[in-house]
Design goal:
The complex is a heterodimer. By secondary structure, chain A is an alpha/beta fold. Chain A has two domains: 164 residues, Glutaconate Coenzyme A-transferase; 44 residues, no CATH class. Chain A is built from six helices and twelve strands. In chain A, strands 1, 2, 3, 4, 5, 9, 10, 11 and 12 form a nine-stranded mixed beta sheet that branches. Chain A has a three-stranded antiparallel beta sheet with strand order 6-8-7. In chain A, strand 7 and strand 8 form a beta hairpin. Chain A starts with a strand and ends in a 5-residue tail after the last strand. By secondary structure, chain B is an alpha/beta fold. Chain B has a single domain, classed as Glutaconate Coenzyme A-transferase. In chain B, strands 4-3-2-1-5-8-12-13-14 form a nine-stranded mixed beta sheet. A three-stranded mixed beta sheet of chain B has the order 7-6-11, with no helix packed on it. The chains are: A alpha/beta, B alpha/beta. Chains A and B meet through helix 5 and helix 6 of A and helix 3 and helix 4 of B. Chain B: It comes from Bradyrhizobium diversitatis.
């Protein structure tokens, strides 16, 4: 793990990169990294995020700045800008069930080729996918999902990179921290090593590549 | 009592002590307001919480504690938090006893369409498909008709949420179940006749001689 400034961290992300972004409707979203992506105008991004949040909030800011060319998400109904850009074919949007979304990312992080899920069998979601029977029950084969970068927001981080999360801000963060080539973390508080008890570490330090040390606020 | 309150009150009577319950957005959210006294259930919010409590008073909101719509909520003593993989493991894995969801259409076999209107409304399905696939009991809470058109249809014309049928539909006019896979009128709202309900229902309903009133 290396401690870096937010400017340095975002400078490493090329235009057109694939990026997983933690958070659920802007809660648990690494918003400072998103602000910096906008400031450095990294365009053509392929974003993997549960939702598009709201205009002006969380991932929504990337749509305000028109930096997204592709979005993989589960729900974008609360962001009219993302909807407009989808309908205008400015962005390609892949909408998938939320349980499938997180399991595909988990598979990507855990060395699995994919997962078998009953969700979506017999619906539009099944189009173009292999259906596999196990013990007489039909499942869809959903393939693993990975990205070049994961932007993760933790509650506590120590200087080794151990992370813990708070309340509903955990959501997709620990799963995404497993599924990208480079993991960049912002935290509400950075604490000395040992403050986060071993039993309370959710994301172990070796998974984290960069920790942002700019003071927040 | 307005239509939404009738629906929410009737659905609340379906909950059993100790149930793990997931409420969708819209009318289903209101069900939490009418849990019968003395009954203790766990509410799950699929963004990672079991033990959802009431909306906090102004000034007491916690920015890292919200429902699946991003609105501030509270956590009751005994609540637990977890990541999204576990949250949907609970849902798909059959650990959620009851889910209450809104609906656009339910057909004569109990199949639900509730996530898109092609060309008009394409918000994404969020957690709806997983909930209908995996929850032990799926209850649809919706208005009986919209703009004069029945939402209980012979066959869904909108894209299905799942090929697994729901267990119960509660509307402002009736309660409909699907014993043997066939839509059956179980209860009607106070003040309505069976004929009045049938007149605004597209799907064919099995009807017995004596249909009780909805208890609300």
């Amino acid at each position: 793990m290396r401690a870096v400034s937010i400017e340095e961290a975002v400078a490493m992300i090329p235009a057109g990169a694939s990026i997983m972004v933690g958070g659920f409707m802007g809660v648990g979203t690494p918003w400072r990294l998103l602000d910096e992506l906008v400031r450095q105008r990294k365009a053509g991004l392929s974003i993997i995020s549960n939702d598009a949040a709201l205009p002006g909030k969380g991932v929504g800011k990337l749509f305000d700045a028109e930096l997204v060319s592709r979005l993989t998400a589960t729900h974008i109904g609360l962001n009219p800008k993302a909807q407009q850009q989808m309908l205008a074919k400015q962005i390609a949007v892949d909408l998938i069930p939320q349980g499938t979304f997180v399991e595909r990312i988990r598979a990507g992080g855990c060395g699995l080729g994919g997962v078998l899920t009953p969700t979506g069998v017999g619906t539009l979601v099944a189009e173009g996918k292999r259906q596999i029977e196990v013990d007489g029950k039909p499942f869809l084969l959903e393939t693993a999902l990975r990205a070049q970068f994961a932007l993760v927001h933790a509650f506590l981080a120590d200087y080794l990179g151990n992370l813990s999360y708070a309340l509903t801000a955990r959501n997709f963060n620990p799963v995404m921290a497993m599924a990208a080539d480079t993991v960049i973390v912002t935290a509400e508080h950075i604490v000395p090593v040992g403050v986060i008890a071993p039993d309370h570490v959710v994301t172990p330090a070796p998974l984290v590549d960069y920790l942002i040390t700019n003071p927040s606020g | 009592m307005d239509a939404q309150e009738i629906i929410a009150r009737r659905v609340a009577r379906e909950l059993r002590n100790g149930d793990l319950v997931n409420l969708g957005i819209g009318i289903p959210t209101l069900v939490a307001n009418y849990v019968p006294a003395g009954l203790s259930v766990f509410f799950q919010s699929e963004n990672g919480l079991i033990g959802t409590g009431p909306i906090p008073e102004q000034g007491l909101e916690h920015p890292l504690l919200t429902d699946a719509g991003g609105r501030p909520i509270s956590a009751l003593p005994g609540a637990s938090t977890f990541d999204s993989a576990m949250s949907f493991g609970l849902i798909r894995g059959g650990h959620v006893d009851v889910t209450v969801l809104g609906g656009l259409q339910v057909d004569a076999h109990g199949l639900l369409a509730n996530w898109m209107i092609p060309g008009k409304m394409v918000p994404g399905m969020g957690g709806a498909m997983d909930l209908v696939s995996g929850a032990k009991r799926v209850i649809v809470a919706m208005q009986h008709a919209a703009k004069g058109k029945s939402k209980i249809v012979a066959k869904c014309t909108l894209p299905l949420t799942s090929v697994r049928p729901v267990q119960l539909v509660v509307t402002d006019m009736a309660v409909i179940g699907f014993p043997d896979g066939k839509a059956t009128l179980l209860e009607i709202a106070p003040g309505l006749s069976v004929g009045e309900v049938m007149a605004v229902t597209d799907a064919e309903l099995a009807v017995s001689d004596d249909i009780p009133q909805m208890k609300i």
